[in-house]
Amino acid sequence: MKAGDLVRFRYELTERRKRDDCGVWEWKLGFLVEYKKWEKIATILCDRKIYRVRAEDVQKAGRKDMINESW
Questions:
Q1: How far apart are CA 21 and CA 16, in angstroms?
Q2: Under CATH, to which class is 6-13+25-68 assigned?
Q3: Does residue 63 come out as left (phi exceeding 0), alpha (psi in the -120 to 50 range) or beta?
Q4: pLDDT of residue 38
Q5: Within 10 A of 30 (CB to CB), how many other CB atoms are there?
Q6: Taking the mean position of all CA atoms in its chain, how far away is CA 52?
Q7: Cα 18 to Cα 22: distance, rounded to the nearest angstrom
Q8: Domains of the chain: which residue ranges?
Q9: Which one of 24, 38, 63, 66 has the largest count of C-beta atoms within 10 Å of its C-beta?
Q10: Which letter does DSSP use for residue 2 in this model?
Q11: What is each CA distance from 66 to 12, 19, 27, 71, in whole angstroms?
Q12: Helix, strand, coil fractions of the chain, as percent rounded to 5
């Protein structure tokens, strides 16, 4: 992944109260601002907000994501 790529990432809607609680996740689309391999953290711009997300929760978006998302 390079800066400027369209990515989808998992974002937790509710905060977990306990370690075992399962939160509700939603997939969002955004633009990759920065990705540092050694930190395994991606910085993503989505809806005028900056998110810092673990690399395991980020995927490079494809053609189907652009078609399904209403811009």
A1: 6
A2: mainly beta
A3: alpha
A4: 92
A5: 23
A6: 8
A7: 9
A8: 6-13+25-68
A9: 66
A10: -
A11: 22, 34, 13, 8
A12: 15, 50, 40
Q: How many Å apart are CA 38 and CA 36, to the nearest integer?
A: 6
Give the tokens for residue 49: 């907000």
Q: Where do we find the tokens 């509700």?
A: 24
E strands along the chain, which residues? Answer: 6-12, 25-36, 41-46, 49-54, 58-60
pLDDT tens for the chain, 71 residues long, are: 889 999 999 876 555 555 555 666 778 899 999 998 899 999 999 999 999 999 999 999 887 777 766 55
CA distance 32 to 9: 10
For the purposes of burial, counting CB atoms within 10 Å of the CB of 9, is it exposed (0-12), middle (13-18) or buried (19 or more)? buried
> Which pTM was predicted?
0.73
Three-state DSSP state, 19: coil
